[in-house]
Amino acid sequence: MNKQHFLSRFILQQANSTAPSSHLAQLQLTQKKPLKKAAILMLLVQRETGLHMILTQRALHLRHHAGQVSFPGGRYELSDDSLAETALRETQEEIGIQQKSIQLVGSLSPLTTTTGYHVTPFIGFVENSEQVIIDRHEVKECFEVPFSFLLNRKNFTKQHLIANKKRHFTYCCAYQNHLIWGATAQMIINLQRHLHR
Questions:
Q1: Residue 106, beta-bridge partner list
Q2: I need a surface site. Which of 41, 96, 144, 157 has the fewest CB within 10 A?
Q3: How far apart are CA 45 and CA 121, in angstroms?
Q4: pLDDT for 89
Q5: If 0-12 CB within 10 Å is exposed, 13-18 middle and 19+ buried, where does residue 184 land?
Q6: For the chain, first and last CA: distance in Å?
Q7: How many CB atoms lie within 10 A of CB 165?
Q8: pLDDT in tens, 104-137
Q9: Domains with residue ranges and CATH for the chain
Q10: Residue 90, exposed/middle/buried by CB under 10 A (0-12, 13-18, 19+)?
C-alpha cells in the first residue's frame, strides 16, 4: 500500500466510521476519577518498499509503561489549542520531527485505557527525508514497521490480562525484537478495521 492508496481508503471510510473504539470504552462507566485527555500520532512514511509506521520504545527509567512500545504522544496540556496539537507537540518533543513537517490526515475514535486516559489517535504523514532526533529522557528507541505487516491480522494474537482487578483482553504482535501490545496494538487493530470496513 502506498500513500495515495491509504488516503483513498482512509478518507472513504472516515465518513462512515461509527464503530466503537474498543472494549475498554466500557471503563468510562466504572472509572472513579475523571478520564485524562491524551493524544498520539500514528505516523506513516513512504519508503521504496512501501508505507512504514513509526513507533517508539519508551525509556526504561520512566515511571509508567517503561520499555513498552508506543506511538509518540502524551497528555493534553492546557496550553494546547487542540488534541491534534497535543499529538504534534509530543511527537516533536519525543522524536524531534517538526510539527510543520507533518501532514495530518484524520483521526480514529478515542480509546479509553485501563490507566484512566481517553486517547485520541491521529494519523499523519512525514516525508522520508525527515530525521528522527530522540529525546533519551522519554524514548529508548525509535523504529519502523512495514505497514503491510501491521495490516495483516494474522500477525496479531489475543491475550488476557488483569487491570484494575478486572479481566480484559489485549492484542499482541511481535516484530523483530519488539512486542507491540496493549493500547498501541488496539489502535493498530482499530485502524485495520477502519481501512477494511
A1: 123
A2: 157
A3: 17
A4: 97
A5: buried
A6: 16
A7: 5
A8: 999 999 999 878 899 999 999 999 999 999 998 8
A9: 3-9+27-148 (3.90.79.10)
A10: buried
